[in-house]
Amino acid sequence: MARDAITLIKQDHRDMEEMFDRLSRNRDERSRLLPEMAARFLAHSRAEEQQVYPVVAREAGERKEVHHGAEEHHEAEAMLRRLQETDPGSAQFDDRLKEFVDAVKHHIEEEESEVLPGLADAVGKDRLKELGDAFDRMRQEEVRRLMAGSAEERSKMVKEQLAEEVDRARRASH
Questions:
Q1: Domain extent for 122
Q2: Phi, psi (5° rounding) for residue 112?
Q3: Which one, of 93, 103, 94, 101, lies nearest residue 69 by Cα?
Q4: Tens place of pLDDT for every residue, the chain, 174 residues?
Q5: Phi, psi (deg, nearest 5) at residue 22
Q6: Alpha carbon of 138 to those of 42, 43, 99, 143, 171: distances in Å?
Q7: Residue (of 67, 76, 70, 5) closest to 40 by Cα position
Q8: Which of 43, 90, 109, 133 is deepest in the core (most CB within 10 A)?
């Protein structure tokens, strides 16, 4: 059984921060880590926007904050797309990763200090658990769908790209 929505969202935030750290430190693993981080970020954002934000807007009266949070998700998604188009070994990747991480951390700070406390004040524990179940279910479905798409993209790689990925994975495991 899932925990309440606030606990799940905050845990996702901590997991995301850990993934950001791993991406920053482990240059050789970026090609492997980036698709997972992207899938988790996108799944979190979509589940939050569809399952949690409507309740926050309606029951907590935080329409302005919800709109702002959704805008920040979309801005971060655009940054993520640029990051995914960048060579993971380049200085430009480092710059784009920092831009993305800074934007997401800003979003996390606002959400945890303004949006989630408003939700906690507006709904009871049972409702928070129901929201947690819905959020968790959608997030997991989205991660599976996005990771399957990522695997499909990898299967389309030309032979040289695939060989390069295999070499990177071998180097990372030694």
A1: 5-173
A2: -75, -25
A3: 103
A4: 558 999 999 999 999 999 999 999 999 999 999 999 999 999 999 999 999 999 999 988 888 999 999 999 999 999 999 999 999 999 999 999 999 999 999 999 999 999 999 999 999 999 999 999 999 999 999 999 998 875 545 444 445 555 666 666 666 665
A5: -65, -40
A6: 11, 8, 27, 9, 35
A7: 76
A8: 43
How far apart (Å, rounded) are the C-alpha atoms in residues 109 and 2?
Answer: 23
Contact 55, 66 (CB under 8 A): no
The whole-model pTM stands at 0.82
Q: Which two tokens stand for residue 134?
A: 């819905």
Number of folded domains in the chain? 1
Q: Which two tokens stand for residue 164?
A: 């390069």
Tokens (6 digits) for 122: 């507006």
